[in-house]
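Q: I'm writing up a methods section and want to include an example of the input and output format. Could you take the sequence below and give the corresponding predicted structure tokens, formatted cleanly so I can copy it straight into the document?
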Amino acid sequence: MASASRAHHVICAEAGSYQQKAVLSASILGLASQPITWWSLYMLKTTGCGLPAGPFGLLGAAEGISYLVVIGFIGAALLSKATSGSGLPAGPGGLLGAAEGLSFLTGAVGLIVLGFQLTEYGYLPEAVPVEGGVCSHIS
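A: Here is the clean output for your methods example:
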């Protein structure tokens, strides 16, 4: 009986370890996405277009993934708030909470830049640049 109880604790400890690693990874991804999104919003505000595609399209891909991560954090936090009454947990070292807070800040700035984009330029650039599109001149 003691060995079964010990095996249960080992399995639970391993599951907890995997969950902690996943939360830490999500936290790091959320924090790393913020500067890329800020750079993109700055470029959008100043030029009317987002980041250039970069070599092999890697910069544009990082930009798109960063926006998705920020939106994902906002969605997860709102869902958590609606179902549990509180946002995401702080996570290890408060990193998950920091990523959540920065995501809300980035989302608010994104809405402000969206308003400027529509009033100053009158269009939203296409997510994937197309030949002859409004942002096709950026390389």
